[in-house]
Design brief:
Blueprint (H helix, E strand, L loop, with lengths): L1 E3 L3 E2 L14 E4 L5 E5 L4 E6 L4 E7 L6 E8 L4 E6 L3 E5 L10 E4 L4 E5 L7 E4 L4 E3 H6 L14 E10 L2 E10 L2 E8 L4 E7 L9 E9 L2 E8 L4 E7 L9 E3 L2 E4 L12 E4 L4 E6 L8 E6 L4 E7 L4 E8 L2 E6 L2 E9 L4 H4 L11 H5 L18 H15 L6 H11 L2 H13 L6 H18 L6 H8 L11 H9 L2 H10 L5 H13 L2 H5 L17 H12 L10 H9 L1 H9 L5 H12 L4 H8 L4 H18 L15 H19 L6 H37 L15
Helix pairs in contact: 5-6, 5-7, 8-10, 10-16, 11-16, 17-19, 18-19
Protein name: Nucleolar protein 11 isoform X1
Organism: Tursiops truncatus
GO molecular function, one term: RNA binding
């Protein structure tokens, strides 16, 4: 269970002059005191329990504070930056910021971070990080550039992992997001490419992090209204390499997808998150708490005056701007259970629940700011549980994954799989992946409703699988008509039997366009296939196809006459792609697959004639596209080659010519192919004649070795 208590206004007057609300709310060295930095010139120290300010400091007129003030927990002093480069340090006794310690830095500061147990860190806008003491020793030191041009820092967090400070910051460039993780015990900066959001135009609007053993859990609230979780390893397998991390859907439609501002996300504990934003497109903004373990809404509170999309949490208090006033809303979260998630947990059922709720701070893994509210009994309980956990041997991620496949839900298997894929690969990695796939497929046969396609997608993308290692994978995908998995298998498996290739081809040709529209297909091999060729280009293309062959010499007078009678239909057939872009991408995967002609031909005869005709029309269209340029290649990434196109045309005609020739719809296509083949034969004959003449010339040149400095020779060709 979780509950939001009655909130109260912390500021009695509107805070700041900026339109975006406060710059930040940060913990002071006292548990109940917080530094509030407005977006103008002022820093105010508040005592929340008394709801009153204890001190206020402002920079001079004309200056502006550019990052939130923080407390140095080692000295009890306060730190702030104004005008991007000017750093100020003061304490409670100081009155005028103009007279306190000042240091002018050589680069612009993005944020100062400070938590208990370590010195403050300064993050610069270009991605460099410095400790406060080292920076104050030489304020004008050169600051290196870490991130690339046009890359902008969007969010950052500082926390402790195994008693070592770690800083993570998220950057954005041209709609792409990257995560940088700096570990200060090893001085290693790791970079990750974040594949955030499922929609093509989705924009990530808020981030939050927590620490789970060997992983940093990065949660993101996307503009599609969903919350995604990305697991980043604390100890990456290759720290120097830019790695790609894939998110999983954690919560669906927590806020309206139309909300472009006023939304925020923060992690409260292991199983609860707070979300700020409108739940429906027509509703007012709300503050809500969700249970991520059971994906249920626990509680919500309407905010009729609107918010700025900023949300901070410290201890058991949530801070936000409600209207023009900074508001504090206390909250309670109990230990996650199914009864509690459904609102059926009776109070007093477990005396340890309340104590355990407040003890772990998932943002810093240190628990500061919460210890004073815990009883001695709860501390003894936690110590006892820590001892019990510490003596238990750690289970390898591979063992956890294989055990989860047998009995757990699809979501839990996906979480365990991402944990396994995030650790360093071992020599038996491909064997474990094969065992996991076999386990999933075995459970699928026993439970037809169990089909974790997201897990299967991630397993295939490891590129260690083959058809012989898991033959049931493509069979299951064929049963489910899962064309996305079939496409990836065709692209990556080198040993697919010809019977399975033909079964994939049948599905690719027969599946409806409506079903394909809703399916995510890799379109790299398709480039502008749906565009049409201009009429003038078609006429010019006809001449190219003839290769010097005169159409007046064509003996097929009836064929030519029939083509002249229906010029409009011929133009439409030649100028437009006969299939949609997604179907074309699937058919291209077939063209790239390996095969043996002997074993493939019998299976091609089982494909319906109308589907064979459609495939031939598409192949003929590809040939016309190839002939548009001198290189005889198609545009795009890894498109079909001319040889692949011609080989498949021959295969289809060899296997099905007697059937296709009886279909009226295929008559025009066969006539076009006939004229094309005849023109190629004619030009090959002419080239053979020229080859003989050139061979004679070569002999003449070899015989005449003695030449003067200048000579004129006349060679006659007969």
């Amino acid at each position: 269970m979780a509950a939001l208590e009655e909130g109260f206004t912390l500021t009695a007057v509107p805070l700041g002059s900026g339109p975006d609300g406060p710059l930040g709310v940060e913990q002071s060295d006292k548990t109940d005191q917080f530094l509030v930095t407005d977006s103008g010139r002022t820093v105010i120290l508040y005592k929340v329990s008394d709801q009153k300010p204890l001190g206020s400091w402002s920079v001079k007129q004309g200056q502006i504070i550019t990052c939130p003030a923080v407390c140095n927990f080692q000295t009890g002093e306060y730190i702030v930056v104004h005008d991007n480069k000017v750093l100020r340090i003061w304490n409670n006794e100081d009155v005028n910021l103009d007279k306190v310690f000042k240091a002018t830095l050589s680069a612009e500061v993005y944020r100062i971070h400070s938590i208990q147990g370590t010195e403050p860190l300064v993050l610069f806008k270009e991605g460099a990080i410095r400790g406060l003491e080292a920076l104050l020793a030489e304020p004008q030191q050169k600051i290196e550039t870490v991130i690339s041009d046009e890359e902008v820092i969007k969010w950052t967090k500082f926390f402790m992992v195994f008693r070592h400070p770690v800083l993570i910051f998220i950057t954005e460039k041209h709609g792409n997001y990257f995560a940088y993780v700096q570990k200060f015990n090893s001085r290693i900066l790791s970079k990750y490419t974040l594949l955030l959001g499922q929609e093509e135009k989705s924009v990530t609007q808020s981030f939050s992090t927590s620490v789970h053993r060997k992983f940093i859990s990065l949660m993101s609230l996307s503009s599609d209204g969903c919350v995604y979780e990305t697991l980043i390893p604390v100890h990456p397998s290759d720290p120097e390499k830019n790695q790609r991390v894939v998110p999983s859907l954690l919560l669906k439609s927590v806020v309206s997808g139309n909300a472009r501002s006023g939304v925020a996300l923060t992690i409260l504990d292991q199983d609860h998150v707070a979300v700020l934003g409108p739940p429906l497109s027509a509703s007012k903004e709300c503050l809500s708490i969700w249970n991520t373990k059971f994906q249920t809404l626990q509680t919500s509170k309407e905010l009729p005056q609107g918010t700025s999309g900023q949300l901070w949490y410290h201890g058991e208090n949530l801070f936000m701007l409600h209207g023009k006033f900074l508001t504090v809303i206390p909250y309670k979260c109990e230990v996650s259970s199914l009864a509690g998630a459904l609102g059926k947990l009776k109070h007093g059922q477990d005396p340890d629940i309340h104590a355990m709720t407040h003890f772990v701070n998932w943002e810093t893994s240190q628990g500061y700011g919460l210890g004073s509210q815990n009883s001695e009994q709860s501390k003894r309980i936690l110590r006892r549980r820590k001892i019990e956990v510490s003596v238990q041997p750690e289970v390898p991620p591979s063992t956890q994954l294989l055990a989860a496949v047998q009995k757990d839900s699809e979501k839990h298997i996906e979480v365990e799989l991402r944990k396994f894929l995030a650790v360093k690969r071992t020599p038996d990695f491909h064997t474990i992946i094969g065992d996991v796939v076999i386990g999933i497929l075995g459970r699928y046969k026993a439970e037809p409703s169990f089909y974790p396609r997201n897990c299967l997608m991630q397993l295939i993308q490891t590129r260690v699988l083959s058809y012989s290692l898991c033959p049931g994978l493509m069979e299951s995908a064929l049963e489910k008509t899962d064309v996305q998995i079939l496409q990836i298998c065709l692209q990556q498996f080198p040993d697919i039997p010809e019977s399975v290739t033909c079964a994939c081809l049948k599905i690719f040709l027969s599946i409806g366009d409506d079903s394909l529209q809703e399916t995510d297909i890799n379109m790299e091999s398709v480039s502008d296939y749906t565009a049409t060729i201009q009429d003038g280009e078609i006429e010019q293309q006809t001449e190219i196809l003839q290769n010097g062959f005169n159409p007046e010499e064509d003996n097929c007078e009836n064929c030519a006459q029939e083509l002249i009678e229906k010029p409009q239909a011929a133009t439409e057939e030649s100028t437009s792609c006969p299939v949609t872009g997604k179907r074309a991408a699937l058919l291209n995967a077939i063209l790239h697959s390996a095969y043996s002609e002997t074993f493939l031909l019998p299976h091609l005869k089982d494909i319906p004639a109308q589907h064979i005709t459609l495939f031939l029309q598409y192949l003929y269209f590809l040939y016309l596209k190839c002939s548009e340029n001198a290189t005889m290649t198609l545009p795009g990434i890894h498109p079909p080659t001319l040889n692949q196109i011609m080989d498949w045309i021959c295969l289809l005609l060899d296997a099905n010519f007697t059937v296709v020739v009886m279909i009226p719809e295929a008559k025009r296509l066969l006539l076009s192919l006939y004229k094309f083949v005849k023109s190629q034969i004619s030009i090959c004959s002419e080239l053979n004649k020229i080859e003989v003449s050139f061979r004679e010339l070569q002999k003449l040149n070899q015989e005449k070795t003695n030449r003067e400095l200048y000579s004129i020779e006349v060679l006659e060709l007969f």
